[in-house]
Amino acid sequence: GAGQASIVFDNNARVFDPEYEDSPYYGQIIPRREIRITSGGVVTYSGSVDDWNLNYEPNGNNVAEASCSDALRIFAGQSLSAFTNEVQTSGERVEAILSRPEINWGTNARQIDTGRQTLGPDVVADGTNALAYLQKVEASEPGAFFVNKAGQVTFINRSTGPQSGVPVLTDNGTGIGYQGISVVYGSELLYNDISITTVITGNTSTAQNTFSKGIYGQLSLIEDGLLMEKDADALELAQWYAGLYSQPEFRFNSVDILLNDLTDAEQAEILGLELGDVVKVVFTPGNPSVGPAIEKFADVIRLDNSVDSQFHRVSIGFSTLRTAFFVLDDAEFGRLNEGALGF
After folding, report:
1. What tens digit of pLDDT does each residue of 138-174 get?
2. Which residues are CB-neighbours of 297 under 8 A, at least 6 positions away?
3. What is the rounded average pLDDT of the residues 35-58?
C-alpha cells in the first residue's frame, strides 16, 4: 500500500488556514501539495497532501492536520489506455509504464533496476489500473516496487544481494538497542503446492514439496495473470517458491526503537534505513543462561516513525531473509555452502 503520514500543526495563528489571507502560506494550503519530513537532516518521508483537516476549538486551541500519501496512491487512481507491450525486462516494463502519457512520471523521480525476468508482449486493456499492472510486473520478477523516502518510485530486482556491515539491532548491548520486539512463528508464508500462470502463453506451471505436504497438509499458493514470456520461467518461479515457502517461518516481525536513547551515529544508521535494506537482529529470550541469543538477518519491509514534542519512536517491520544470494568476496554473504547462487 501507499506510504502514509499524518502531521498535526499548531494553527492558533491561522498559519495553516486556507481562508486566512495574511498567512505566509496563503494559496498553498491545498490538496496535492508536495510535502517532505526530515529528522536530523535525513528525509524520512516524501509524499503529497490528500486532505487538510482543520479543528477549531472554542477556547482557541486550533490545529490543522495534513493527511498525506505517497505516489502509489496516485497510481491507484490512474488508468492506462489500450496498448501492446514489446518484449522487455521487468525493469524496462516499469520504465515504460511510468513513461506512458497517462502517468508521465518524471525520470528524475525514479530508481529502477533493469530486472532479471523477461516479460512477454501482452495486450493491456483500456482502463487497466496503473498500480495493479505495475504490481503484476513486480510479482512477475519477483522483486520490490515501492516509493522510497525521497519520493522516488523504486523497483528492486530479485537478485539484489545484501552486503556485510549492516546495522545490528540487539537487546544485549552489543549493537543498536531496541525497546520492544515482536516474534512470529507461524504459517503466514507456508506453501507447498504452487501454481503460476502467465498470460503470455495462457499456461499454468506447478510445483510441489511433497515432504512439506506430508507434514503440514496441502497449502496452495496461486499466482495468475503474471507476465513471463516463457513457461520455463514460470516453472522456475514455482519451483523456487516450493522450496522457499515449504517450512513455517520463525520471524522477527518488528522492533521498536526510541531514537532519543541512541547516539548520533546510531540515530543516523536507523534514519538511513530504506525499504529493502537488510539488518541483523539479535534477540535473547528469557534468562541469558537458558541458551544462546537468536540471530537472524532480515529485510526491512516497513518503517513507521512517531514523533511528538519529546520523543521520536521508530518501528521497523521485517521479513526474514530466508535465502540470501551469494555475494562474491563478502565476509558474511560470500561464504560457500550458504545462500543461493542466483535465480
Report:
1. 999 999 999 999 999 999 998 765 566 799 999 988 8
2. 162, 166, 278, 279, 280, 281, 320, 321, 324
3. 93
CA angle, residues 72, 277, 48, in degrees to nearest 5: 25
Residue 293 CB coordination number (10 Å): 14
Distance CA 278, CA 283 (A): 16
pLDDT surpassing 50 at residue 1: yes
CA distance 136 to 154: 15
Predicted TM-score (pTM) of the model is 0.87
Question: How is residue 319 written as a grid cell?
Answer: 521479513
- Angstrom distances, CA of residue 150 to CA of 23, 29, 39, 138: 28, 22, 13, 20
d(CA 35, CA 280): 32
